[in-house]
Amino acid sequence: MARIVGYIASSLDGFIATEDENLDWLMQQPDLNLGEHDYKNFIARIRTVVMGRATYDWIERFPGGWEYEGKRVIVVTSRPIDNPKGPLETRSDIDALIAELRALDDGDVWMLGGGKLQMTFMEKGALDEIEVYIISEIIGGGIPLLPATGLKSTAKLISAQALGESCARLHYRFD
């Protein structure tokens, strides 16, 4: 059975992007070294990438090529995607998608992007783990790490570690 995981960065004040979806605060970290937790190591173990429509639309606007070559990509949306940036599938039924993902046995599933879809999976008991990289920047507002939905849950802290002077990695498991 595939593990469904999150891997996401947040500002110290709890935001993943500014209101205008800007990530400059994250991309401009001069000495950010995640070592064994680097994105390239993380993505190597991922077979399937799942994202919401807002995340896909952001990726589509971002300059550059398709970063998920060789991965199965699923976008959760009820609207068609004309001329996708790369090969992808779409789904609109979350419960059916969770069942489909749970049946996979060829690698982990990454819940990419913002917290809305991750929160939906948490509410349905379908997010197994999340790695949150807290960057020591206060950006003053923006898109929250996780939206307030009323969900009450306790995650088990697997590990916490400092990664240089500007980042802390928090790794949680949901039972």
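the 2nd protein, sequnce then structure:
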Amino acid sequence: MATDKTKSYRIIAEDIPFEHEQKEKIFKTFFAVSDYYKKHPNPGACHLVSSIFYVLLNEQNIENQLCVGEVKTGTQYFDHSWIEINDRVFDIAIQLTLDASRNAPVYAGYDLLTEVNTKRIYGSQSPTGFDRDAKQILKTPFVKYMDDYPQLREGAWRIVKVIGRELRLKLDIIELRQRYLNTERTLKQQP
């Protein structure tokens, strides 16, 4: 695939070879979350963005994994969260990292700027391992994490509900909290 900087990420994503029975819903959900994130930038919010994306996909009966691990880019490693569907990486939060670097999102394993498989290695293991924040994420129950999002009275569930409305989903926060009580993040580590 040749890079054409005038193409939008949506157009590029439509051309990516990714087959799934709910491909259209995955596409719409990915870009609904991405658009919200662009309107409400939050550098380093990978755990939040991935959690929201995870719930919205699940609420449409799209099986996915909420992953946490380290990502290697070049010689650097960073702790991160992302979504996998059929073993393909979907990474919205990479667009604005904690160090304020801007990157193209990853859709079905493809970097939406270069239009080729991402060069980042998801699930890598650095020599130093996880930092304190990533260790805390792994220990924090999912519902508590969503409840404790500080900027909103209803926690991160409020964001799920706002984006869900755009996707024509009727979501009740009390029901969501119950449904996700046993949710755990998938620790991704390559040998």
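Residues 9-188 form one domain. The two ends are 30 Å apart (CA to CA).
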